Amino acid sequence: MKSIFNRTPLTPNTLAPLSLGSIHPEGWLRAQMEAQAKGITGRLREIWPDVGDNCAWLGGDGDSWERAPYYLDGLIPLAWGLDDEALKKSAMDYIEWILSSQREDGWFGPEKNDDYWPLIICVKALYQYFTATLDKRVLQFMDKFFKYEYKNIEMKPLKGWACARGGDNMLMALMLYNITGQKYLIELCKKLKAQTLDWPNIFHTFPNIQPTSRSLAWERLNEGRKDEGEGLVGADHPYFHTYYHQSHGVNVAMGLKTPGVINMFKSGFKEQGGFKFGWQKLMKHHGVAYGMFTCDEHLNGSNPSQGTESCAVVEAMYSIETLLGCGDFGNDLPDILEKLAFNALPAFYTADTMGHQYDQQANQISATDAKRPWYNNGNDSNLFGLEPNFGCCTANCHQGWPKFVSSLWYATNDDGLSAVSYAPCKVKTVIDGVPVRLTVGGGYPFSETVEIEVSVKRPIEFPLYLRVPFWAKQPTILLPEGEIMSVRAGEVTCIRRKWISGDVVKMEIPMEPRVTRWSHQSAAIEIGPLLMAYQPKENWTRIGGEDVAPLWQVTTDDRWNRAIIRSEPMKAVFQGDNEKAFKCGEAPVKVLAKMGIAEDWGKNGENADQTPIQPVVRKATVETVELVPYGFTSLRISQFPFTETAE
Asked: Where do the domains of the chain lie, and which CATH numbers do they carry?
């Protein structure tokens, strides 16, 4: 399938996604995807009734809301990303049932569901399936559903979650417009915009500068939510929509794409800058070192012991992946995406992926069923298991890695290819009628060298756009004939040439440990796109669950309260074995740093207390400490107190 660019009158875009299945993972990334296929995604249908054969999305009398649609939205890109026939067959069971469920008027799905939101998730999943297979039934299905919306949206308006997440609805209508050119779809988007939470204005004015626990107690918010119910945006009672939805972390993560989506058909200052406004303020007021904002379940400040919901991580990634294909929103999007993918995403899984956390913490010294200062999540939220706290993450965690794989490279509007990330993969596409293959090797981000080998059926000229990460020190590109190009960090370099099979472009992107600063004058150590963390010895204890998916708590007896000594040098060690998935075996990159014990840094219940601003550190406690990538840890300190010297 040829990549689809925006039709007139939509805002022109320079990048467009490749069709699903054009990019296949290699190396450590393939191992990660295969672990998911053998683990939670491959087995969920057999072990979790909410998406099992009795669920309403397969014709049974079980769950009829968002869980099976969420699962399908990750199952499809995993199946076609790995070209896994068993996963494809399982996905087809849901697809065929959904397609056959559509009524004459365009509505579809289980009879007992009357909510737009799970239907929109289904449409997202089906659109991915269409790009992989060109099954025209999907286009007819989408057209019929969107005509239902167009005719009925005033009488049967969006409500609740569908209002907060209307950007996904508009996005799918615009994707269909780019294929069919039917003008009613743009008019539909205007109607949907009027009923969707005003994310461009929210991100521009950003009223949520305080932790929600400080600005509005959960008991008060929940009471307002009960009073309001699932009413419309703009209803008289302010709590549910004004406070609940715009501070709900997953809604915010989904909402990040909405200004860019609206900008496609209604361009304006707030729409063009919506993501930038929102992301900067989110990270300023709620950001932590793994590159995400806290939300346990609502935005809750920048203390590294607050939690971030797994759903919010994968939805933030999808929002960025969407924005990359919507238009030009700046060169920093790939860096933000990589930081989430290489840190926050793997951290919430167990090695076999059968367990996950609902909430993860930048400073996580125990994962136990103990009361923590979450905003409104349960005590079990940072245990590792099949369904800690609530099942939405069990259903929705599957999309993270597969959609990242399908977003590693984008097509360009001048018939070229553009790199978003250099994670190992194979890219297969057709340019000007010629099959083109790229093989990306080197083990990035666990290596400073990237190799891109080009294979073509016959010599062909096309542009290759290579992104240089913002952190690269004196990066260079070696062209096939031996010419060395000097490039600058944070920029995109275009290599336009006639390619022949066997051409190799080598990119050197040196990584040096660097210190970044976070809330309460804490410090983090990063190398390349990786956040590094001190990992104490982890004691895993099963406390429940089934044998196939146990429920685990994790504790440690080690001292964790360490501080960075600013005057001491740091050393990076690349160990070369970068074929294993996260949390499998020894970390391929380490940083050696001098640290001492911060004697005045203790616990607050089961959490690490706030990092002390002027820690007391004795010289006798200073030693060389080994830091590993954050994504390899289940317990860790990643935001440290920072001191000039030890006493």
From this structure: 15-375+386-405 (1.50.10.10), 414-444+449-508 (2.60.40.1180), 514-643 (no CATH)
